[in-house]
Amino acid sequence: MDELIIILVRGIGLGAVFSLVAMSFNVVHNSSGILNFAQGNLLVLGGLFGFFTLPQEPELVRWLLLVPTAAVFYAAVLAAQGYITLLPLRSSVEQHSWLITTLAVSVIISAVILIAQGPFALSVKSPFANFALLGTRTPTPYALAVLLAVAWYAALHWFHTGTVTGLAISAIAQDLEAAQAAGIRVRRLQILAFAISGAIVGSAGFVAAPVMSISADSGIIYVLNGFIAAVIGGLGSNAGALIGGPLVGVASMYAAFQFGGQFQNVVSLALLIGVLMVRPQGLFGRTRARRV
Amino acid sequence: MTGLLGPQGLSDRAQLGLGIATIIASIAVPAMTGNPYWSHTFHLVNLYIAVAVLQNMLLADAGQVSFGQGAVFGAAAYTVGIASSLHGAAYPVAAAFGLLAALALGSLYALPALRVQGYYLGFVTLSVAMVFPELLVSFNDYTNGINGITRAVPALNLALAWGLTPLSLLVIALTSAALAGHAALRRTRMGRQMRVAAVSPEAALALGFSPGHARSAAFVIAAFGTGLAGVLYVPVVGFLSPSAFHVELSIFFFFSVIVGGRGRLLGPILGVWILYLVPNVLMVDLVNYRLIGYGVVALVIMLLFPDGLVGSIENRLRRRMQKPGSADVGVQWIMAVTAAGRAKTEPAGAVPGTAPVVAVDSARKAYDQVIALDDVSLAVTRGTIHGLVGPNGSGKTTLLNVISGLTRVDRGRVSILGQDTTRLPPYRTAQLGVGRTFQTPRVFDDLSIWENLQIGADFGRDRRRADWLFAALHGVEQRWRAQRPDFLPHAQRRLLEVLRVIAMDCDVLLLDEPAAGLSPEERRDFATLLSYLRDVLGKTIILVEHDLDLVWHVADRITVLEAGAVIAEGAPDAIVRDPQVRALFTGKRDA
Amino acid sequence: MLEVRSLDAGYGRVPVLHDISLTVNPGEVVLVLGGNGAGKSTLMRTIAGFIKPTRGTVLLNGREITGQSPETSARQGLRLILDGHRVFPELSVADNIRLGAAVHPGRGDFESLAGQVLDFFPILRAKLHAAARDLSGGQQQMLALAQAFVARPAVLLCDEPSLGIAQALIPPILEFLRNWARQGVAVLIVEQQIDVALSIADRAVVIERGAITLSGTAAELKQDHRVQDIYLGLGASGGRR
User: Fold this and answer.
1) Looking at the domain covering A2-278, what would its CATH class be?
2) What is the percent of chain B with per-residue pLDDT over 70, rounded to a whole number?
3) C16, C33, C36, C234: which to substitute to probe chain B, counting the most B Cβ within 10 Å?
4) Which residue of B140, B248, B316, B410 sits 20 to 30 Å from the alpha carbon of A41, by its own alpha carbon?
5) Which chains have 3 or more CB–CB distances shorter than 8 Å to chain B?
């Protein structure tokens, strides 16, 4: 029974990380139809940020200040990536260049990590002690990831409904031409959407660093699981992402427990194929035509 | 017949020649100069080229994004290794199993491809490519896990002449065959089918074949060739380990195609050479930079040369070589050519008596709250032109889609040439002898003008029935084989589409706003063409049009739709005087 | 003021418009008439920047805006209201209007402008917090007008404001457009049906197969039989067969 609780708790915690990746997918996809393959490696970079900025014995204040720093830093990085990703789409006939450019960026990041840090996983120390939950000791970052996911969900919701800029991004997703006719600067906002996605994964990577696998190879696992979480919840829906993430996380943890760690990804793959064959639009999915 | 320059710049034939020469040289030269390092390297490079050629076909011709070809390659290689090394099977037997494994996996990719679009398939195949080496490690009882499998095939390494071995010959044969196969595929019906299906599934259905079948065929072909390359991997490298089939391999294949130039025959060769040789050989100290190499090169190429390297060179060549202007596709010319070549034959499936050729009975179609068709009935007599008019949103195009089968009715019946087509898939309806043109002419710029016509004949009821047309066009055949239609002005693209429909040799033509974009003079000519199609070629035509002038002059009967319902039906003289119709079009109640 | 000179345009490779020239002065309502497929919507979209013309120029208050993106032109004072009463369905009426003014952030007159249009269309005020998708077609059209109104454009293009709207709602919408023009805005309206908008227009042109074949004052065209003939395909341009 204890094991099941651990699986559930950690699965939800891990799933919260997937939810965050999924939400970062949604923000970009809603505004431009692009799926950024590099999100997984950017999450890992967020973890690396933690590796480099946190001292051996991290203290709370410093840690708290670094969360928004990581967010801002990666917002800038992603704004740059967004700019180059959107660039060829302006004029060329090749409307799927983003598939390749985002994958290329993902590969580059992975390679840079490999060269700079070698192939092995790095570990980051958590500034918090483990806490007890339902009779099991749980590393705090799992809980923090859940809190962060909920916080971002709320922040995004507020942004999209309460600020003019957020309303404008939301409008682009609902009717691109009407948004253009209204004078909304679509390209600029699409880059902003990239920046927001960067803030999400940057902060997520930093917060979850102690329980993440930080290595050149792990980015792809996060991007795939994040994608599956997004698809299960319905691509474009943050509420769906919040639910899809823990579903994938728990399934993944359970697979590791039942079959061994090497089968986690097989189970994820099976989940993805299952969802795509049975209900491709996911739980809350809406199909909206997107155009860059 | 074809020189160095074809519709895409360097002709396929020229690229094929250059490619095969390169392949042979890259194996022969190191063999003859006795350099084992380069010999081994180029054996592997050529295997990779074979896989990349198939990836090229899959991506550029069939339009399928697969990041999983590395797994297919690895599946073949590992099956051979397991069968022959761990179970003592002879190499040829193991090879057969390896090929089967590759076929199984590669064909499985076709299943999600039938359900979802481009990037979803990319993610699924990427997942497979990621999971594959992990499974190899996990099931180490069967695969020897990270220790790998060693297997040499000495028979293949016997020295023949000039330092070549049977293995060298096999590698040359495979890679050349892949390249030649790709070039040949493009000339076949299946190749045309794939390329059309990739660009416009709608057009595929209207031309009489299923885009899903075309896609599946592409995956199977790709799996077959990739499997053969995987089978040869074992004797070439002699050692198998999971790390050789990392997800990065699949990404490498994909990027090779992009960097070299997707769709260009030579692209994969150039791409593999650049992405493999440069980091792995020329910069061997910096092998860790290999990945950065892939990423940066692919990124830069996509930003600077969206058509890849070979593609950009070709575009420049083409621009210099292509003469702008026309292909002499004019109405008078079409009529002269088709009249001269036409043998009078009875249309097949002749419907006895005066039964309507196309009959729609009480069709009803609704999308959520919106009623697109409300109890609509239509009867079209053989050898007549029937006009469908009405304001935007009146249901004209929905009705046309219902007749061609692209849309299924909720209630009601459709019958064409005496057969009930209500539940028939659209490509079967097309095969009965129904041709269709679209508002924007579905003329494929990736095919030559000649191929655009051939695709019409490919799936007609009887391919030979269009022979008279191709014979009549013999005079322009050579020119049209060498030209792509992208320089044609709109009116000629429209006429080309009509010519293709004639090549389909169908009895019923569905024309969706064919006059859009034509000048007044071109419309006059088009009206003449329509009359000709009806009177001389015996076609039955259903015409959806906004140009009322054209319709009044050419149609025998007209059906007027408003908000999904028929409000008038009859001869043009009566319709144009009908007050309800006048009010509908002008908004003047006192018309 | 809007000036269009010798405009040729189409979509993809399909040519639609030939040599279109027209002018709309501040305070005027100019009507573009024509049957289906004549090219009216293509004209509006080309002027607004959704389609790049192959020839010709578009001038806004003397400044060339040809081929600019729609959002750039909108920010410079040329606003297109698309056909089909398109608004942002998931957003509330209030948010839709707010977005309309986002073009000119920080302008003090938003409240008064919004107040004006809400006074004219009280139903919008009543449904201020309802989602736009819950409004009827006519109400959505009013919302689209309101959204454009608060942006204070110098030139307004309106594509088929009456399409799909209940008969009773059309007169107030047209009246709003006329009053708006009288405030000094150049208004260009596309309408399918002949009589609907002639009553509020000053001048009108008729487009047939992508070219202007008839023009005059609204009063003149109201009497002219040729307009009807054009609509019925009986050809003002004659010379057929």
Assistant:
1) mainly alpha
2) 90
3) C36
4) B140
5) A, C
